[in-house]
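The material for today's practical consists of a large collection of protein records. There is nothing in a record beyond a sequence line and a structure line. As an example, a complete record with its sequence and its structure tokens follows:
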Amino acid sequence: MTRIESKLQRLSQIEATLVDHPEGITRAELARRFNVHRSTILRNLADLTIPVYEEGDRIFIDRESYLINLRLNIHEIIFIHLAGRLMTSNIDRQNPHAASTLRKLSTAIQGLAPQISQFVKGSANTFDNGSKKQDPHYMQVLEVLTSGWARNQKIHLWYHSQETGPIKEYIFSPFFIEVGAFGQTIYVIGRLDPDGTYRTFKIDRVERIELLTEKYAIPEDFNPDDLLNNAWGIWFTNQEPVTIELHFSWRVAQRVKETLWHPTQRLILQEDGSIIWQGEIAEPREMVPWIRGWGADVEVLQPESLREEIKNETIRFMNLYGIFAGSKENEK
């Protein structure tokens, strides 16, 4: 191996070592690892094309600026494109990082699939054009949460649970960031200090946020899929899930059958073409907007509390539009 080949190999190894050591590493440790003098490591660090910095005597890779080498085939690229398209319909704010991701993909496949490249570029534009609102604070909150999650550093945040509610302070360890199925927003799931309880925060409601230096570790047994298995969207509890039973009319039966709405879903076909839908849901109230969207083509059979909630809301709708039980208009 020539000197140049040896140096290039060592530069690659130094990069991999820095990536594998988020806590940083000293020049002396690098010199011992690669069996070279510390002056050689100093020269090698200067030759690196990746973003590095020093704190005290330790060398770190800048994990927010570091560009990852990733090789994708056209089907994997289309998956990312579809995920981006789904995000555009679920998030109402601009996101320059999402736009940049799709533009890079568009450029990468321009020679391979030029027509698809143009469509991917168009998807990128939807993340930073005038169709979505600018919200620098929202992006700053998301970026700080991402940094804390990536670096395993705790977060100090100020949060209001409702628009008119009091602002409360929390020390928080982010374990997972999730897109909400409803409500056009993003949530973060993690653990509170000092009691260690799990908590979900809606990032729209974070008034202020700071990245702390204190480290945390995500438990090995933490699994967001297990935690959210019975959630309709993002709400989870320590209680047993509630059995939900809905009766869908024959008019929408085919549409209901086409989709797996929840992992615990069970469908019972009826002789008249209608369907009984059953599922085990952590928090039934989270289903209300979805149930409401089916209008008169769905009836809540159980639990009784959810049935009463939908019934009372129906009565409010009738009063709102001046429709009263037994009226001819109500029979249409």
